[in-house]
Structure formats: structure tokens, C-alpha cells
Amino acid sequence: EVQLVESGGGLVKPGGSLRLSCAASGFTFTSYSMSWVRQAPGKGLEWVSSISGSGSYIYYADSLKGRFTISRDNAKNSLSLQMNSLRAEDTAVYHCARGFSNHQYDFDYWGQGTQVTVSS
Amino acid sequence: DIQMTQSPSSLSASVGDRVTITCRASQGVSNYLAWYQQKPGRVPKLLIFAASTLQSGVPSRFSGSGSGTDFTLTISSLQPEDVAAYYCQKYNSAPYIFGQGTKLEIK
């Protein structure tokens, strides 16, 4: 059974940093792209970042302007998102999601998400 | 920047109705278009990929069509359990953006 479990969310002050993790199980991790998608309270889905199975290809939403860094540890079946210079508008539930295949970026499995709140 | 525009933003229909949601891309995306369903309090669920291919386990009353810039999600006979928000997403190339969503309610 495919499982994606996020962790690392919490309350952080504006300008602070947070590192999110996603533990994956139930599938061959290196064979799939992985992504982060966020959803602000009462709002729609917003794609954040994606990474190919090998980690060679990385993509970010333009709105992040270099503040976020995605990475993966294929030995540990783990996906991460380092978030710096956080702003109030980054407040959202952050989901990790599995791509349909290594270089395909529609998402067939989603984690339950971890809440990130940016507030003073 | 490329945009994905869904219409309508919200929709109220009766059980048994045929429901259609449209998604328009500001640039062509070939058939790299997915549809998701998000029920209240739940994570999104992939319904359709490649514009018209039904994901395993999705009821056959759901269907998708389109190519290029104009796409449609159709529910042939609306059921109470279909109350949800529906999102389209392009995935031909980054950014892999979503439409703004369509909230579907039962009348």
C-alpha cells in the first residue's frame, strides 16, 4: 500500500525557516517523481515544486522566488522541502504527492499534509 | 505565464443531472491534463489523466475530453457523493499549475 506521511510543519514567525519531510513507503521510490502541493485555508490547490525520480530534474513555482528548496534521499525513501524567508502568504497545508511515473507530474497519491502557519 | 481557467467557479445541480466543468489553458498543453476531486476535509483524488483516461477505481459516470487548450470534465448522472471541489491541472511542462477549482453542490 502506498503511503506518504508528511512532518515538520508548525508555527513560525515571518522571515523564519522550516523544513518539511515526507516519508514514502509501499512503492519503488526512485521510479517516481515527487512533488509538493499546498492549499491555503479555504483556497484552491497550488503547485509548489517537483523533483524527478533520480533528483536530476527540479522545478519550482515562479512565485517562490528561490526561497524554497526541494530534495530527496532515495536511500531513505524521503522527500524534503526547505522553506526560508517565510511569509504570511505561505500559510497552508503542504501535501507531498507522487507523480504518475518518473517524469510525469500528475499526482496519483497524496499525503494527508502538514500545516504550516506563518505568523508573529 | 500560462494560466488554467475553470468555469464555472461554483455549480449547483440536482441528483441525476448531467454536469459539465470546463478548463481552458492559455497555451496548448496537448493532452497533458488531469482532473482531481477533493471532497470536504479530504485530500485530492486523481480522477482523470491524459485528458480522457479514467484512473483505476473511478466510477464510469466521470469522463474527460479535450486537447490543446480546451477541456471538459463531465459527470453523466450526478450522485450525492460527488459533492466536492474539482480541479484541472496541466502537466506537459513546468509549472504544473492547477485551475482555480469548481465547487459542486447538490441542489
What's the structural blueprint in terms of helices and strands?
The complex is a heterodimer of chains A (120) and B (107).
Chain A: E1 3-7, E2 10-12, E3 18-25, E4 34-39, E5 45-51, E6 58-60, E7 68-73, E8 78-83, E9 92-101, E10 104-110, E11 114-118
Chain B: E1 4-7, E2 10-13, E3 19-25, E4 33-38, E5 45-49, E6 53-54, E7 62-67, E8 70-75, E9 84-90, E10 102-106
Parallel strand pairs in B: 2-10
Antiparallel strand pairs in B: 1-3, 3-8, 4-5, 4-9, 5-6, 7-8, 9-10
Please give a structural write-up:
The complex is a heterodimer of chains A (120) and B (107). Helices cover 0% and strands 55% of the residues of chain A. Chain A contains no helices and eleven strands. Chain A has strands spanning 3-7, 10-12, 18-25, 34-39, 45-51, 58-60, 68-73, 78-83, 92-101, 104-110, 114-118. In chain A, the strands form two sheets. In chain A, strands 2, 4, 5, 6, 9, 10 and 11 form a seven-stranded mixed sheet that branches. Chain A has a four-stranded antiparallel sheet with strand order 1-3-8-7, with no helix packed on it. Chain A starts with a strand and ends with a strand. By secondary structure, chain B is an all-beta fold. In chain B, the strands form two sheets. In chain B, strands 2-10-9-4-5-6 form a six-stranded mixed sheet, with no helix packed on it. In chain B, strands 1-3-8-7 form a four-stranded antiparallel sheet, with no helix packed on it. The model of chain B has no long low-confidence stretch (mean pLDDT 97). Classes of the chains: A mainly beta (120), B mainly beta (107).
